[in-house]
Amino acid sequence: MKNYMTISDIKRRVLIVDDEPINRELLGAMLSQTFEIATASNGQEAMMMLTQPDADYSLILLDLLMPVMDGFEVIERCQSDEALKRIPIIVLTSEKSAEVRSIRMGAADFITKPYDMPEIILARCERIIELSEDKSIIRSTERDKVSGLYTRSYFFVYLRQIIHRIDHPTDALVLNIDRFHLINDLFGRDEGDRVLSYIGELISERLSGLRGIACRSESDTFFIFCERQEEYESLIEEIQTKLSAFTKSRSLRLRAGVYSCEDHTGDPESWFSRAKAACDNIRGQYGSFTTRYNNELYKRAVFHERLIGDIDDAINNRNFVVYYQPKYKILGKYPVLTSAEALIRWIHPDLGFINPGEFIPLFEQNGLIRRVDHFVWRSAAQQIKRWREQYNVTIPISVNVSRVDIFDPELEKKLCDLLDEFSLSHDELMLEITESAYADSSERLIEVVNSLRSKGFLIEMDDFGAGYSSLNMLTEIPIDVLKIDRQFIRRMLLDDKNLRLVKLVRDIAGFLRVPVVAEGVEEKEQLKLLKRMGCDIVQGYYFSPPLPAERFGELIEQDLQRKEETSC
Ligand code: C2E
Ligand code: CA
Ligand code: CA
Question: Which residue, of 304, 334, 360, is where some domain finishes?
Fold first, then answer.
């Protein structure tokens, strides 16, 4: 299928630089049918034109002997400028020695004066342009093998070449598929590729109607650049319907972010990163298929930039503070303090308290979470040691291990070094890994978790039930504790169906022979039901919110006191 805009449809712009008006006119007349012509009467004027923001010349025809700035100097300046270097130069000369010198300096070809064979001159210009464009385009492979659309790098090379010629309003669209990894996990990569190829087909069928071009940017993300449409909902819904029929699955959901390109002088990559921000913003939301980038999103993006910029200060100035939330064993007569979860808080000097829900997902996206997590692990390890010294008891602490950490080749070493530093045993720093990480990267994760367990670390699967892992996968995953997602606990009092769901999770844990932690327990009624079900450990506001270390110390004291009383 041919896209609407192709490079050959576009009239290239050629700059003729010559101080003789007659020469400019002659050449202009020969070439103006095929090219858009601009002229300059000396080197200085040419350099000014070439460095304008919207300058987009495909070829320079350059006289060598000119007043103010001669042709040699123009060649030299163009050669030393990354952007101008790619424009081929044909020198216009009547002198043999000058030809050789200019070619040595980097000119692509020469045309000898006087100009007596217009067809040959035209053919030469066309050939030189073709060669130079091929060179820059060949550098990036044109087509993505899986989807049949352009590759990301070719897409941008191409877009930059055509953008100055487009005078209608345009949009940048980013399409993404929620939970695409499920296809790979459940049916294998070949099936995943088959689905991506089908989406590629669906997009390319619609491209000519949209007057657009498209690429697959990465895994399940597609970019479309097209003429502005009033709405995209119907397009997305149409693709969605066909996709659901093709995969016979209702869980794949397409979403799109749109950025309106107000003028065509900016950087195309930034249009798509804004469209992507819009698209990411509706991840996991039900009901909305498309959203436009707007002011609100812009403010969020600026806020996020600020957070990213402040991370070093936060670590160095201790604006990151680790809170600890207790976990209680509930199966005995009295609840017994058994361990804690470390949860980070950011007390920003200017912005005040920032919720982890705001910065954790952001830092997970850009990998900075590794630094934050390491800070938390270290604080937690140090805290275990302090409490031991202070109260002569060991309170193991669970720390969150982000999916990004799993890909850190140093993960195991970093954790072991911390244990050595604070003389802890491996089961005292427990590791919580969210269930969705298992679903996203199961093979690698299983490998890492197996290795950590062989060292003696205990692994808790966090947020269980929210991450869509298949039952099949569960049997393969090595874990020591299952933490039920707090949404299940929140809903368990609503009706019998929700209550049965929690029982089901309890049964799965029983089948896997691991204890269950219920988090987000706020009410006595929830606690009673969980106890009756045989749930082992509970964490939640019912007992305590996450607390600073000193306040947690009071809970340890209370617990020790009760133990003393009951043993009397
Ligand atoms: P999570 O790991 O599922 O942590 C439990 C969250 O539930 C915490 O939210 C905790 O404050 C909250 N919570 C505990 N009990 C209750 C309750 O009874 N009711 C309600 N409504 N909520 C309760 P928090 O601290 O806001 O953290 C949110 C998420 O941010 C965490 O979810 C975790 O995914 C992430 N996070 C927090 N600290 C870290 C960290 O140091 N590293 C990483 N990678 N992620 C972290
Ligand atoms: Ca957790
Ligand atoms: Ca959790």
Answer: 304
567: Cβ–Cβ under 8 A, 6 or more apart, which residues? none
Whether the CB of 486 sits within 6 Å of ligand 1: yes
CATH code of the domain containing 508: 3.20.20.450
Instruction: Give nearest CA residue, ligand 1 atom 13.
Output: 520
Q: Does residue 98 share a domain with residue 72?
A: yes
Distance between first and last Cα of the chain: 84
Does residue 459 sit in the same domain as residue 482?
yes
> For the chain, what is the domain count?
3
pTM: 0.65
Is 1 contained in some domain?
Answer: no
Last residue of a domain, one of 141, 161, 187: 141
Q: Is the pLDDT of residue 319 over 80?
A: yes
- CATH code where residue 52 lies: 3.40.50.2300
For 444-453, 514-523, 532-541, which range has the lowest pLDDT when averaged over its residues? 444-453
Protein residue with least CA distance to atom 16, ligand 1: 520
pLDDT for 422-481, tens place per residue? 999 999 999 999 887 876 667 788 899 999 999 999 999 999 887 666 666 777 778 999
Residues taking part in catalysis: 519
Q: What residues are paired with 126 via a beta bridge?
A: none
pLDDT exceeds cutoff 60 at 7: no
CA distance 409 to 453: 16
Range of the domain at 43: 7-141
Q: How far is the CA of 459 from the centre of ligand 3 (A)?
A: 13
Contacts of 3 by beta carbon, 8 Å cutoff, 6+ apart: 204, 207, 208, 212, 213, 214
Question: Smallest Cα–Cα separation from 412: which of 459, 363, 380?
Answer: 459
CATH value at residue 202:
3.30.70.270
Q: Partners of 547 in the beta sheet? A: 324
Q: Which residue has the higher pLDDT, 490 or 111?
A: 490
**289 in the same domain as 367:** no
> Is the link from the previous residue into 88 a cis peptide, with omega within 30 of 0?
no
The lowest-confidence range among 156-160, 179-183, 298-302 is 179-183
433 Cβ inside 6 Å of ligand 1: no
Q: Which of 189-193, 196-200, 534-538, 552-556 has the least mean pLDDT?
A: 189-193
* Shortest-distance ligand to the CA of residue 369: 1
**Ligand 2 centroid distance, CA of 392 (Å):** 26
